Amino acid sequence: MKINQRRSLMNYKELTPQSMCIHAGASVNESRAVVQPIYQTSAFRFDSTGHGAALFAGRQEGYIYTRMGNPTIRGMEDAVAALEKGKFALGCASGMAAVNTVFAAELSAGDHVVCSQVVYGPTLTLLNTVYKRFGITIDFVNTSDTDQVIGALKPKTRLVYIETPGNPTIELSDIKKIAAAAHEKGAVLAVDNTFLSPWFQNPLTLGADIVLHSLTKFINGHADVIGGIVVVKDDDTYSRYRSVLNQTGGGIDPFNAFLVHRGIKTLGIRMEKHAENGMAIARFLEAHPQIAWVRYPGLKSHPQYDLGQTQHSGPGGVMAFELKGGFEAGETLLNSVKLCTLAVSLGGVETLIQHPASMTHASLEKEQRLAARVTDGLIRLSVGIEFHGDLIADLTQALERVSEYIGAVPI
Predict the structure, then answer these.
(1) Phi, psi of 130 (to 5 degrees)
(2) Of 245, 264, 283, which residue constitutes the final position of a domain?
(3) Does residue 360 form part of some domain?
(4) Which residues contact 355 (CB under 8 A, 6 or more apart)?
(5) CATH no. for residue 248?
């Protein structure tokens, strides 16, 4: 019993990240299960009316209704909060539920938002449709240029929202400088950290106020969950965000939270393999005559390579590259791969490849795509944990098909 008491009082945030992945969020439970059980229930029994009243009034800790909290969900939330070096986390039903929770908790009519130009498409759409109708004004800027962020800040700016690396161009933004500029104007900085995960980057330690993730991607890592999460640093922000999440009904369910928590146990070893493979493939692509450029944080040719060395500990598993043959080359490459999977997600153990101009950004006018630096030959590659030699062989044969169909492009 004493061992169990010590385990329940362990401060997991004092562990190394690898041990934290295995143990953070675990709790002593009445069944003594080694793995956090799935509490697949909608409601929790009260001992008495007084007990129920105390829970609702916040005078006693415990669970009432799974939309408001659940032990399985709490364990996963605590694990991500510890890895992100935050205080609390809020599990959400999807990455977009996490994005919406941030917007709904922070913004009121008349507020102004500065947002990355290079950002997950539905985030842009949510701001441009729903939140504009509520009287929110938005400026989309190239946040890899901090001066553009500073120039866009206004007296009514409430929120600066960035992705770094940005989707799908893999541009980096200076978290520390942008946080300082936002705070000087009384705004908060939210960072979407999905692409690097808490294993390689911790924006809260660089001055960000809010961190969010699509749990669907690297944190879960197995392409079998839809989920999101928001991580905060203090009690007041947590209370405000929890109220919004409870009222809007965007919380994650226990089974998906269980799967995410299971995925976290291998986060470290997966991220290291993603990065190892990523470097090998990025170097291969950079030397290939059909490739105009490669943007991967681990390459010294990346425009913000030096910045990256100061704010993340590894380059992650996502890269962008430009085919010299443009739109037709992009379609040909994707139709020719055999091992790489043609799909629009990322962060799983399998390698996924997509051509934004013909897929995720196909509904945009070309001018709009180019403004977001999504060019005709841009390819986004999420490198999995297969043997990198097999992946390079697959890309080699697909690029040969590009050369045959489009014609050899002069170096």
Answers:
(1) -60, -50
(2) 264
(3) yes
(4) 330, 331, 333, 334, 378, 379
(5) 3.40.640.10
Residue 320 in domain: yes
| Active-site amino acid positions | 67, 120, 192, 217
Is residue 234 within 8 A of residue 89, CB to CB? The reply is: no
Considering the domain architecture, whether residues 228 and 271 belong to the same structural domain is answered as no
Question: d(Cα 236, Cα 194) in Å, to the nearest integer?
Answer: 24
Give pLDDT tens digits for 199-249: 999 999 999 999 999 999 999 999 999 999 999 999 999 999 999 999 999
Q: Dump pLDDT digits (tens) for 157-176.
A: 999 999 999 999 999 999 99
Q: 408: which DSSP letter?
A: P
Q: Provide the residue range defining the domain that includes 137.
A: 2-264
Q: Which of 207, 312, 246, 204 is nearest to 70 (CA)?
A: 246
Residues 118 and 40 in one domain: yes
Tokens 């290291």 -> residue: 272
pLDDT digits (tens, 9 = 90+) for 117-128: 988 989 989 999
DSSP assignment letter at 253:
P
| Number of domains present in the structure of the chain | 2
Predicted TM-score of the model (pTM): 0.93
Q: Are 189 and 308 within one domain?
A: no
Q: Which two tokens stand for residue 402?
A: 């590009």
DSSP per position, 338-391:
SSSEE-S---SSS-EEE-TTTTTTTTS-HHHHHHTT--TTEEEEE--SS-HHHH
130, 229: one domain: yes
Helix and strand totals (H; E) in the chain? 17, 12
3-state SS, residue 11:
coil
Residues 55 and 187 in one domain: yes
139 and 285 share one domain: no
Contact between 98 and 92 (Cβ < 8 Å): yes
* Ordered strands of the 341-342 beta sheet: 291-295, 318-323, 378-382, 352-354, 341-342
